[in-house]
Amino acid sequence: MVKYSIIIPVYNEELVVRETYKRLKAVMEQTDGTYELLFVNDGSKDKTIDILKELSVRDETVKYLDFSRNFGHQIAITAGMDYAAGEAVVIIDADLQDPPELILDMIQKWKEGYEVVYAKRTKRKGETFFKKQTAHLFYRVLRASTEIDIPLDTGDFRLIDRKVCDQLVSMKERSRFVRGLVSWVGFKQTAIEYERDERLAGETKYPLKKMLRFSMDGITSFSYKPLKLASILGVLLSFSSVIWMFIVLYLKLFTDSTVTGWSSLLMTMLFFNGVVLVMLGVIGEYIGRIYDEAKDRPLYILQDSRRVERESEKVSRYANY
Predict the structure, then answer these.
(1) Tens of pLDDT along the chain (321 residues)?
(2) What are the E-state strand segments in the chain?
């Protein structure tokens, strides 16, 4: 029986994956039970999978899932949870920005009775001012937009109990926002604060485009407020247009002043058309997610794996070979 499962999603991490393995191995050797290091290769195009195969040959605690292509970070985490066998499951990225040594503190909190132990960043080293400010803004907009208490300044680095993991596996949605789902399921949760380090090597796998998509997934997965805001804005603009119409009629009928020129009219039309398109875009984001759910495709496809057992009832809706 495996006591601890460590899920490590990897994508083009050939420069750091060996060091990640060494540090995780050193940490887990200090624990009081059996463990597995479950790497999820998210369609890497470099030599990451070759290194994982090499590590798995000489170390029986190393297991891996190999996607047929890149399906995304959140899907990789989901696949890891599908196959994790431990009583406690830890999620950590391979770039070593999140210190593996913190896992020991998480395990201690778990033994004290907490079912979710998440790492809260107090400082982010090696990141640009733009990245820090947009991350700061995102977490606060997300909290204001949802009724779920999603902790500020936290990533996916956390420990979850077996019962929490099972609940997450049972959830079917495709636009996954794992940290939000963990908050949604509840249970007894606590935080451990830490300073986030710089990447050991390589470059971030979350450029601006992916970050925007990730942010949209987080907001639309847990909030209808954008739709409500669009409705409220539509009502206010309609009311404003009625008032403007009465003003124009009054000027025409009861004064010598008239509204001249087309520039102001054109600007007003462009403004209202822009607002309409924005509202349609918000609605489209939600409809797009409904469309994805209706297709009912598997979340990911595996082309290879090592030392993982497939529990058909648990993961058949996710993984195909």
Answers:
(1) 889 999 999 999 888 899 999 999 999 999 888 999 999 999 899 899 999 999 989 999 999 999 999 888 888 998 999 998 889 999 998 888 888 999 999 999 999 999 999 888 877 665 666 666 666 666 666 666 666 777 777 788 899 999 999 988 888 777 777 888 888 888 899 988 888 766 555 555 555 566 666 566 656 666 666 666 666 776 676 667 667 667 766 766 777 665 565 556 656 666 667 677 777 777 777 777 676 667 677 888 888 888 776 554 444 434 443
(2) 4-10, 35-41, 62-67, 88-91, 116-124, 154-161, 189-196, 300-306, 319-320
Give CA–CA dist 189/165, Å, rounded: 14
263, amino acid identity: S
Q: How far apart are CA 259 and CA 249, in angstroms?
A: 10
Task: Count the residues in the chain.
Answer: 321
Distance CA 194, CA 102 (A): 8
Q: Which tokens sit at 300?
A: 């990911």
- Would you state the torsion angle of the CA atoms of residues 131, 134, 135, 139, taken in this order, to the nearest 10 degrees? 180
DSSP line for 17-37: HHHHHHHHHHHHTTSSS-EEE
Q: What are phi and psi of 34, to 5 degrees?
A: -70, 155
